[in-house]
Design a protein that fits this description.
single chain, about 220 residues, alpha+beta, BirA Bifunctional Protein, domain 2
Length: about 220
């Protein structure tokens, strides 16, 4: 029997939101976020020390959030010109927003994955392993993870450019610890975006706008 884990955000409130909204979110402490169907029993969370755990709705695997992450979510109500019945197109739209902003700042190739979901069999269940539609890669390394949740009221796309190395999840994951410990991806620091983080987030709130902008209180 699975343990009860609080949901990441208030999804019921989200469903009642009638205006296209971009959410710029933060967390004040380490936070492990599980995929919608991911059993908490498969993780050895004690190995990570004191961390909060929440569950998101939508696809994808576990991710470790922390201070300094660039976490941006888009809610597109059904009927909005940017809403699409095509799940793939919705994910690509989010990735293209990121690529537009990152491409203007980085002097290296920025790629949006436009194919199907590709799972890394050596690192199952980890958000930053593999490739999903709309996810952004910089010089071949995954930079922005994308997950999507769809209901009749609209589409919700959550995106993350992590400041925290996801290899820190390795002690809590089943399988070959070395495989997870070697997980490589781009971060805010490796892309040299620490000083530009605030401006980059601001730019993302304008791409493909207009959007209503919300900056909720930090999660803990």
């Amino acid at each position: 029997m699975s343990l009860v884990v609080d949901e990441l955000i208030d999804y019921d409130r989200l469903r009642s939101t009638e205006v296209a909204t971009v959410f710029v979110r933060t967390t004040s402490a380490p936070l492990v976020v599980l995929g919608s169907a991911q059993p908490i029993e498969t993780l050895e969370l004690d190995a990570l020390g004191t961390v909060a755990v929440r569950r998101r709705r939508g696809g994808g695997g576990v991710v470790l959030l922390g201070r300094g992450d660039l976490w941006v979510d888009w809610w597109v109500p059904a009927g909005d010109p940017r809403w699409s019945p095509d799940v793939h197109a919705t994910a690509l739209a989010a990735g293209d927003r990121w690529a537009r902003v990152l491409g203007a700042r980085l002097g290296v190739p920025v790629e949006v994955h436009r194919g199907r979901l590709v799972i890394d069999p050596s690192r199952p269940g980890v958000c930053f392993a593999g490739r999903g539609p709309g996810e952004v890669f910089v010089s071949g390394l995954k930079a922005v993870g994308v997950t999507q949740w769809r209901v009749r009221e609209g589409a919700f796309v959550s995106t993350l450019l992590a400041a925290t190395a996801q290899a820190r999840l390795a002690p809590a994951l089943a399988g070959d610890p070395g495989s997870y410990a070697s997980l490589e991806h781009a971060t805010v620091s490796t892309l040299d975006l620490d000083a530009a983080a605030g401006a980059l987030l601001e730019e993302l709130t304008f791409v493909d706008g207009p959007w209503r902008v919300e900056r909720p209180a930090p999660l803990a």
